[in-house]
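lol ok so funny story. i was supposed to be doing the assay writeup but got distracted and ended up predicting the structure for this chain instead. priorities right. anyway since i did it might as well share w the group, maybe its usefull for someone
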Amino acid sequence: MRTGMKTLIEKANILIEALPYIKSFYGKTFVIKYGGSAMVNEELKDAFAQDVVLLSFIGLKPIIVHGGGPRINKIMERMGKKPTFVHGQRFTDKETMDVVEMVLGGLINKEIVSLINRLGGRAIGLSGKDATLIKAKKKVVKKLSPETGTPEIIDLGLVGEVEKINPEILLSIEKDGFIPVIAPIGVGTKNTTLNINADFVASAIAGDLKAEKLILLTDVEGIKDKNNRLIPALNKKRVKSLIVRGIVSGGMLPKVEASLRALKGGVKKVHIIDGRVPHALLLEIFTKKGLGTEIVK
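and the output, tada:
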């Protein structure tokens, strides 16, 4: 058999392997948190957009929630304003919030929309302020004072957390075959604009829509054990054990917390995958082995 023919047959076998997954997921909603290197590297950006367009063309309903922290930092520094972090979280005053809204809701959001549309998709950019998609409340963070041992409230400024999702606009957009691309900005009391962690926005939207999957793109392979080995699959009980034992910590902790919230909200499965791998979405969704860590109830 000619080498060229073998290559074609291998491609056909890949499509056949994907067929049962395509059939099973047809018409289902997939919420994807887009962040990390996949938003920076040009090759990865193209691969991500191609994956999203393909998902849409074969009948899945992708919803994208994106971050953009590093880009916000760069633009703030160009403007002569130094980013400030309190206990690892961005302090957001009014001036910073203006930059956050400009970068997330404008620059980054429209870049993602344009890239998907250029490849044949039908994307629409939104922020949580559109049709009051994300109703938010000011985030309250409490830490024990080292001096007194009593809880003290830490002010993060205009940082919020999701209070309620109003999914009507998403359902309408999905029904018409469009791909929502959402900036994680919410509306607080008195129409205050609040900056929200994108992982938790994606989690809340996935839970409210009872999505088939929530997929979080990261810059690591997935969740690892104490010996630094990838854990392919976990349930909620084991995840909580890893948190208690300190194995899940640092930047992975909010992603795992968002995952648990999504499962509690009715999402069937959550996937934490390595967005540094080209076509990570397709590899995770349409292959038996998958790519990262799958979390189930």
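The first strand starts at residue 29 and ends at 34. The two ends are 47 Å apart (CA to CA).
back to the writeup now i swear
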